[in-house]
Amino acid sequence: MGKSSVSVAILAGGMSSRMGTNKAFVRVGGSPIIERIIARVRPLGDQVILVTNSCDEYEYLGLPIFTDLIPGKSTLGGLYTAIAQSQGDYTLVVSCDQPFLNPDLLRYLIGLREGYDVVVPLNRDHYPQSMQAVYGKGCLDPIRRRLEADQLKVIGFFAEVRVREVRGDEIDRFDPLRQSFINVNTPDDLAVAQALAAQLEADER
Questions:
Q1: I want to staple 25 with a disulfide (CB 3.0 to 4.6 A). Which of 32, 49, 161, 199 is the partner?
Q2: Given a cut of 50, is residue 146 above it in pLDDT?
């Protein structure tokens, strides 16, 4: 029996209220964040999809787009839609505001998937980075129960499934500075990300 298949889903459902404009399209390193993300994740799965309720804005990207199966359920509802609509047995789920995703770390997470329902890295505070994790179809029923109960904490269902946490030295091999966990939610975050992108580009010259 062959290895399980993998899709990639990008969640682009946030309101971007703190940014004042759609954060997926703000530019970091000369490109909209969403395009940076697509370039990094495209080689990692058999399929890349978008989950958003603003379909028109993203049509130019040429990706399959899905709206929430159960509207009004915040990020957990988007996660449910991503897992349900993807073709893969497993889905690497990322959010649209992470300009420094590390393909090598993501590939490592994907490689750990067999025998688990969730493979998730932990940040330095030991908190799961749920929007940079791999989810199996076995998560659907536990998530659905949470959605129906209006219990919308993203990691709330983790206690009901098999979780492989990735931490410490494992992450250090690929991203010792944890740059891949940087989110751009505010204008201040954006300024930091733009400065970092400029520095990384200068270092590569």
A1: 32
A2: yes
